[in-house]
Design brief:
alpha+beta, two-stranded antiparallel ribbon, Cyt_P450_CS, heme, heme binding
């Protein structure tokens, strides 16, 4: 027996007998690791799973569930990662902690002339001269 849809993705299991899956023969005793990214794909993507190994070019211009993202690290749909909300809340703190560890210096011309604090007027006030950072 070989389970195709595991409760936990990417957990390897061993085929206890020879199985045929969509025309592919899986020999007895082989370690099987379900294809994790396809777990959260809609049904139209699951029908193309076997075609990836035959021709990856067919996947390049295809319709994706989230075309604006190149990487969805926490998955999507019914099997979204439970840690997504925690990470979204902690991301700012982790980034600030990382940036705090650098030793920041001002550019030489700013040290000599001082920082330009002039502002542009508009709906929101922005700095006329953009900040530059050097670490």
């Amino acid at each position: 027996m070989l389970r195709l849809h595991m409760m936990v993705p990417l957990v390897p299991n061993v085929a206890q007998e020879m199985v045929e899956i969509q025309g592919h023969i899986v020999p007895k005793g082989i370690t099987w690791c379900p294809y994790g990214p396809c777990i959260a794909m809609p049904r139209y993507g699951q029908s193309r799973i076997g075609s990836f190994s035959e021709s990856p070019v067919t996947w390049l211009g295809g319709r994706r569930p989230f075309p604006e993202y190149e990487l969805i690290p926490f998955s999507a749909g019914r099997h979204v990662c439970l840690g997504l909300l925690l990470v979204m809340r902690m991301l700012h703190a982790m980034l600030c902690s990382l940036l705090h560890r650098f030793e920041w210096t001002l550019p030489l011309e700013v040290e000599e002339n001082g920082m330009d604090m002039s502002e542009n007027l508009g709906l929101t006030m922005t700095m006329a001269t953009l900040l530059q950072s050097f670490s």
